[in-house]
């Protein structure tokens, strides 16, 4: 059996090989190639979101092989995969639904039309569009967020506190508007004050067969102030878990998601309103999949491959008695790594069970530009949410890394 994978996520490619698939892998030239044993065929293209270039590369394979599925492990190739399926008659998600799961403006428009609470928002195609909306927010004593309509994660996401912020962002946009993520323009939306949560789900045959909620210790944009990122899984017995699970189900049903793995983000305000942020039809980034595996025994990568390839999937959930979480070791300045705290020092803290570094002493690091840019992760457990959070605070009270400034 052959499967086309438009992306390099090694956990996905590994699961495809485990299930006996031959893989035809397409990746951007800008990213490192995956291990050769994960790919039967591999091609690099200038832009994986460019449907025409990807289609021309795949045409000979569709002529030669029977392709069982076309999957998009990352957001950038979601629409490309949908167009490829429609062109070559491959079963799966088409363009109409995929657009609502990729284009942030279409997504929010669809969600709002179903009566689900979301932030105020508007499409932005020129400077004046942004000025009008931002002025409205500032007049109400609020801030705004601007980002590409077809962005991913925190790519080019900025908080706007005043008109000068928008001027700087728009100047940057004019320099970068030919980049793929700016192809459809921008969306500007109200900045929501509240705690940020995520719900990760598995959908098959129009049913949400698994979902679990987690809380971000700091809102995602906190990384810009070097605040620690990460996630803490919520207790499945808690009231907030049940409310978030129901909200997530409503979102998925409103978007008519028939199958897939989703990562939905939302806010809970001080008035206890749940406000939709966005949803992605992919496995969550960072160490969220690893943390949920520890919390629930559900492997989101295995689930993703099985449901995307229309294979039977049963979520055999086993909830841990403790709550699990992780915290990023943030990058607070650029330079050369002089010293890293030893893993043994961290694992002496009650509740810390593992440390993973992405770098080593002597490496040179640049400032983090995205929420998942980090020096490593510390993995934690505790009896409840507050216990895990207090352990995170204890970790970040320590000097985790020393960096000599760049010369």
TrEMBL record:
Q: Which UniProt keywords apply?
A: ATP-binding, Ligase, Nucleotide-binding
Gene Ontology molecular function terms on file: ATP binding; ligase activity; metal ion binding
Q: SUPFAM superfamilies annotated for this entry?
A: Glutathione synthetase ATP-binding domain-like (SSF56059)
Gene3D superfamilies in UniProt: 3.40.50.20, ATP-grasp fold, A domain, ATP-grasp fold, B domain
- Family matches, as InterPro entries: ATP-dep_AA_Ligase, ATP-grasp, ATP_grasp_subdomain_1
- Organism listed in the record: Paenibacillus rhizophilus
Q: What is this protein called?
A: ATP-grasp domain-containing protein
Task: Specify the ATP-grasp domain's residue ranges.
Answer: 108-309
